[in-house]
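Model the whole thing, not chain by chain.
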Amino acid sequence: MSLRSEYEFGIMALLSLMLIIPMYFPRYYVYIIAVTLCYAIYALGYNLIFGYTGLLSFGHALYWGVGAYTVAAFMRPELGPFRIFSMEALLVLSVVTSALVALAVGSICVRYTRIFFGLLNLGFVMLWYSLLLKLYYITGGTDGLPVYTPTLLGQSFTAEVFRTYTYYYYVLAIFLATSLMMWRVVNSHFGLTLKALRENSLRAGFVGLDISRYRLASYVLSGIWGGIGGALWAPLSGQVSPEISTWLTSGDIVLMTILGGMGSFIGPVIGAFVFLNLKVQIMHYTTFWQLFLGSAVILMVLVLPGGICGAASSLRLRRTKTAS
Amino acid sequence: MLSMGFDTITFTILNGLYYAFSLFLISLGLNLLYGILRILNVAHGGFYAAGAFFTWYLMKNAHDAGLPLSVLFVCVFVGALLVGVLGMILEPLLYKRLYRKREEYSLLATFGLMLVLDDVLRLVFGSQPLSAGYLYAGIGSMQIFGRPFPIYNFVIYAFAIGVALSLWLLLFKTNLGRITRATAQDTEMSSALGVNTSLHYTKLFTLAIAIAGLGGAIYLPATSAYPGMGFEAIVLSFVVMVVGGLGSLKGSLIGAVIIGLVRAFGISLFPEFELAAVFAILVIVLVFRPRGLCGRKFSREEK
């Protein structure tokens, strides 16, 4: 089989597996996979700024938080007749808020690279976190805000059906749509330009590219993807609290991306799956999840900087070499 | 500020310095490592926490054995020394492999180490906050403007100033310092001139880690050791580093004092936004003066 059809076969097989999950798997797993898909969308976006553009942000949970809090804020009972329960409308609002925040924060951040970029993002996410914590009449403070069950395409469901069945397909559909869009983005001229910036921004500048503008566009897109992920996740969790957006939760998305393989398109999605499911499994046995995670990260950086996808592709390379 | 009397202002400043010096001791080591080895050591918070936990263990046992206060005081140094030993073990195992890697990679690996350290401390010492306030209570308090103020805080101030002075002497008046400054400027040239840079890095690393351990150790009698303290400390130390300037030792003192005072005045003047103010300062400094108050200018390549 040629490489391309092998890939297509794999994707079709995986997709049909994803479609039947709610019918055959326990409800708990359906929930876990739905959460994982939200993170996968977020990771796809994060990979654009980290893997493709080469900027390490230690504050991307900001956008996850903006998306999730947008959903919760527009559902608040205090809004009376203006409360919004339509998930489509809430998603559009989350895209708008996360894009606006990313535009404002990004226009400052993209002036720097490397450690300064990372620390500036860390500063912004902690600023946001401390505001979430203290502006309790808007954000609910430490307790956060409840998230009610939204309607999907105008239909309302009971919480049970929603969480284990209908919403799963909803999230899966949005995951597929956002993946396709991101695939188009990274394979466009724009995506190639980002890679050029990552490899040598000085040279890219000499060629006449407006470096900051490209970086900003990449940053805003990755922020929007983070916002969509957070917004989709909020009804699953039923609650948003400030802890979802700190520098430590921002670290999680970095680790997922590293684990899967930064720079490869599908890597961060695999990373999100492995990270979250491993976490659930390990937490069954012990609360010392950080110990495993930390050791894995150190090993990854020292031994496998390409992540799972990098290791897989080098294995494949070795196999084809010995075969020929 | 108008509503604050002179006595309140004095107290707020003293409290601010109290916060400041813990951040100073952590960011001093961070800046030393960043300035010389180009590593932003996220795990530094973990070593700070280890200092507190080790000292708790020593002090608790010494106190239960009925040893006098002077011995308890020695525990602080022993705790810091043990952290230094931990650093000396970890340097060849992990850090040595990171020196030639890109900054982002070392950031990630040390973040991983921070996660490991935090969990190992939790595994060994449990999740409850541990306090050993014997020394703090034993030294007692004095009256300032008719209000009690713990004398132990002055021990902390003296310690921090002592560490700053001895590090300055070490770097600018001794041979070790001359070698350090030389290797920081040009590693290849120094090793060509006969400096064993590998060994030298191990020494520096141990020193930086031991200072962080000392930070945790000296604060233990006044507060408590608890899991997660390293994460809280490191993120504020990053703010101090940026405000003072990455890699600048003078900067870590100035940055720490600024952040400490902002927190202290924040708590009494605008408690809602105390934490937000600290991070707002980080953002403002990065936007208007990214090299920090005392940092050197960037080269074009770093921009």
